[in-house]
Amino acid sequence: MKKFLGLCVTAFLISLFMPVNAKALKAEIFASSGMSMTETTEGGKTFAIKNEGTSTKLYIGVNVTEGTLNDYSAHIELANSSFTFGGTRSDYSLQSGWTGTISKSSTGNGIDIDLTNSTGITAGNRKIVASITLDVASSAPSTDTCLITLETADTPETPESPKCQIVDGVYYDANGNEVSEEAYNEACTTAENPQTGSFLPYSLIIIGLALAGWLYYVTKKNNKMYQV
Known about the structure:
23% of the residues lie in helices and 38% in strands. Helix 1 runs antiparallel to helix 3. The strands form four sheets. A five-stranded antiparallel beta sheet has the order 2-11-4-8-7, with no helix packed on it. A four-stranded antiparallel beta sheet has the order 1-3-9-6, with no helix packed on it. The protein has three helices and 14 strands. The chain is α+β, with helices and mostly antiparallel strands and 228 residues long.
């Protein structure tokens, strides 16, 4: 019986460390024409940067809406033959906390970006990650421009919405739709639609039943001993 009680306690301790409603990462990696981030590739857009000679720069940023982003990987295509990266004037500067490389792509006229931030960028932050200085041919006219395209990016996939869960005060029904508290209770707290994604309550119920059974057994055994 002591062994049985020990197993119950162990199961309870394990249940305390089970993940409950883990928050997924939602973020968008983008290129920007400036620090102000008024022109970006967010939402699949493109933009053009002007010929600023030796001061021609491109910026890259990130917009984190949920979770924490630590890794930043992307490929930027420079759709103009007079703008390149990897020449004598090409250079880049990383914002505080970022390490990694920004290099000329092995194919095409592009830039490969692979950066890491050990602390991470948390939700609610839209900021510049690095600035990139480009080479512009000396023969290029001052009116020349370069179309910037974020061709591919290792951006985290948008996860499936939580079902029958409450995340940051937002209620989700059995289909993962944001609903009111009343609709949530109707869809997720009935006997036919128990809440999902939370292991702790079920563990407590199981352990509670097991302990109740053990107490019943001990009480019954002691009663028989007294009767003898």
